[in-house]
């Protein structure tokens, strides 16, 4: 029954996503939602290394930029077909993540986060300064839209919306398989206690590097989608602010859950959009709202719901009480 409820909930979300273009007021709403889907895909990847493995990677936006610039450089400067460049976006990010991971993951806790923060800033500087490769501050202009696949073309906002939604659905399905597999349990064991996990025979470095590579692979793929959707890239794609945005999405939705980062990635962009009428003062309202959420809902929307459901189930299912012991006289009589 629990599995059925899960399938029913995911099916409802997918149905709402499929129907959204028919109720959206204009193409701008489609653009906002498509961008939210792209960052949701990257946030789901960040949640794998942070929420499930316990390593807070502050260079995640840099890896997203690596995927985006892989598509931009290959398509614009070398005339590589879009889908070939897109397929390489996640691979390039994962390969780079392997080399950075084997160095950074030797550190633990805040030291790892500080190291990756520096790595992310280095990525930003490389994109900004290496003009021969990345076009520097001018950026990459004229990135082609995704090539048609048979009769399917991706020129209109609606077609791009469904394309991004397709990759988000595939990414969520793959992440569901990962976190509910033995590999996912291994990541959670590392998060809960590295010493205990190692005593159980888990290879810490190998599994943490694998989690890191899978995480940045999602970021690279999201960056490749972003390049094909926006069709213009600048160094700001690698800014650490995007990593903090994705962290906020995880915290609001529920870090360490599968649905939480997705909900946070969809709720927060729309909240900021509806506060735009306040212009520069919108953060005066947005900031306290976020603080209240963190204080009163510290486990996020999904995490709080799961905790409430677990407590409710515990109250409805009383613990089994052992039968009362026999009186001493009765025990003696039985021996007699």
List its traits.
336 residues; mainly alpha; two-stranded antiparallel ribbon; 15 helices; disordered N terminus; disordered C terminus
Give the SSE map.
Layout: H1 2-23, H2 27-52, H3 60-77, H4 82-104, H5 110-129, H6 131-134, E1 140-141, H7 157-179, H8 182-192, H9 194-199, H10 204-230, E2 232-233, H11 240-253, H12 259-274, H13 282-296, H14 300-316, H15 328-335
Antiparallel strand pairs: 1-2
Helix pairs in contact: 1-7, 2-7, 2-8, 2-10, 2-11, 2-12, 3-4, 3-5, 3-10, 4-10, 8-10, 11-12, 11-14, 12-14
Keywords: Cell membrane, Membrane, Transmembrane, Transmembrane helix
Main location: membrane
InterPro entries: ABC_transp_permease, LivM-like
Detailed description of the structure:
The chain has 336 residues and is mainly alpha-helical. The protein has a domain at 26-238. It has 15 helices and two strands. It has helices at residues 2-23, 27-52, 60-77, 82-104, 110-129, 131-134, 157-179, 182-192, 194-199, 204-230, 240-253, 259-274, 282-296, 300-316, 328-335, and strands at residues 140-141, 232-233. The termini are far apart.
- Give the number of DSSP strands: 2
Largest sheet, strands/sense/barrel: 2 strands, antiparallel
Distance between the termini: 52 Å
User: Helix proportion of residues, in percent?
Assistant: over 70%
Strand order of the largest sheet: 1-2
Order of helices and strands: HHHHHHEHHHHEHHHHH
H/I helix tally: 15
Low-confidence stretches: 1-5, 328-336
Q: Report the structural category.
A: mainly alpha
Radius of gyration of CA atoms, rounded to a whole number: 24 Å
Shape summary:
globular
Membrane topology: Multi-pass membrane protein
Pfam family, one: BPD_transp_2
Transmembrane segments: 35-53, 58-76, 82-103, 110-127, 160-179, 209-229, 249-271, 283-308
Main location: membrane
